[in-house]
Amino acid sequence: MSSVSPDRPSQRYYPMWGLVAARLREFIREPEAIFWVYVFPLCLMMALGVAFRNRPVESLRVVVVEAPEAEKTAAALGADSRFRTQILPFDEALLRLRTGRADLVIEPTDSSARLAYRFDPTRPESVLARNAADDRLQRAAGREDRLTVVDRPATEPGGRYIDFLVPGLVGMGLMGGGLWGVGYAIVDMRIRKLLKRYVATPMPRSHFLASVILSRLVFTIPETLLLLACAWLLFGVTCYGSYLVLLGLIVLGALQFSGIGLLVASRARTIEAVSGLMNAVMLPMYIGSGIFFSTERFPEAVQPALVLLPLTPLLGAMRKVMLEGTGPMGVAPEMVAIALWAAVTFFLALRWFRWT
């Protein structure tokens, strides 16, 4: 009888595939993990999509200070349905503006033909109320517009907040899945002494780490496709570029954050330690990588630091593909940066990882 060589590929890689199957079964048996991976991103997308859906500007709250001409001013504004006008004493009017219960305060000055506007220049609705009220009052005073204008609101898919938000939620899911789904799982196995048992086996640590990443990828793809499908069905979010390029970015992003998760968990011995490390890694990306708003809101001085965050190039590339229809060459720099993060973190994790 011929003996089977222990170096045959089918036997050499069998432990790795066995570990992948074990990780999949372990994940399926954890209802809370399924909730955070599949249900929570959908709930977040629907809540934010409804909260920031395209809708007309709400009523502009204007307070006119009590004066002889107050009734006339309030009547001129009341002819426009956008304004919700009140006439109040000066002190109460300022209090309402200071506490956010009014967007604009209009008060008379020494001249009967002059008004003073009190508003908060840091609040967009306050600036809008000031400009809209001034336009209305100027027309009521006899101003004529020489140009005829036509309003054409832009409401088509691609330019709404939900279109900007969905790539951010996809990236957030990849980041959370890679760090919590990989890093937390490894530390949990270390605490339960499961890793210690693997030391007695001939399995290389590279096979073990690869099995953890592969098992994570099995859930990453359907998780992301489900989120994109629900965004399309519920809000009409679409991809103007290639879905294959988008899928490639998703896979690269999953590998990148799986590598970071491995690196974070390579030496951590307790749940508290790995939780603190993962929160320290994720918090800057939650704030500065542009999940919920553009990174351009930050000052120029911090822009170079934001570009170095692992999530920033991923979100930038996905938004280029989904919103601008950019091809693979247009996102090649971002793909190279993501691949470097994945390769470097996996190499360092392989070098520093310990079983106990």
Q: Features of this protein?
A:
disordered N terminus; four-stranded mixed sheet; D-Maltodextrin-Binding Protein, domain 2; mainly alpha; 356 residues
Can you characterise this structure?
By secondary structure, the chain is mostly helical. It has two domains: 226 residues, no CATH class; 81 residues, Periplasmic binding protein-like II (D-Maltodextrin-Binding Protein, domain 2, 3-Layer(aba) Sandwich). 63% of the residues lie in helices and 6% in strands. It contains 14 helices and four strands. Helix 4 links the parallel strand 1 and strand 2. Helix 2 packs across helix 9 and helix 3 packs parallel to helix 9. The radius of gyration is 29 Å and the shape is elongated. The two termini are 41 Å apart. The N terminus is likely disordered.
List the helices and strands and how they pair.
Elements: H1 9-12, H2 14-28, H3 31-51, E1 60-65, H4 70-78, E2 83-88, H5 90-98, E3 104-108, E4 115-118, H6 124-140, H7 161-191, H8 194-198, H9 205-235, H10 243-265, H11 271-288, H12 303-307, H13 311-324, H14 332-352
Parallel strand pairs: 1-2, 1-3
Antiparallel strand pairs: 3-4
Order of helices and strands: HHHEHEHEEHHHHHHHHH
- The percentage helix is 55-70%
- Cross-sheet strand order for the largest sheet: 2-1-3-4
Share of β-strand residues: 5-15%
Distance between the termini: 41 Å
**Individual helix count:** 14
Rg from Cα: 29 Å
Helix-strand makeup class: mainly alpha
Low-confidence stretches: 1-6
Give the beta-strand count: 4
Largest sheet: 4 strands, mixed
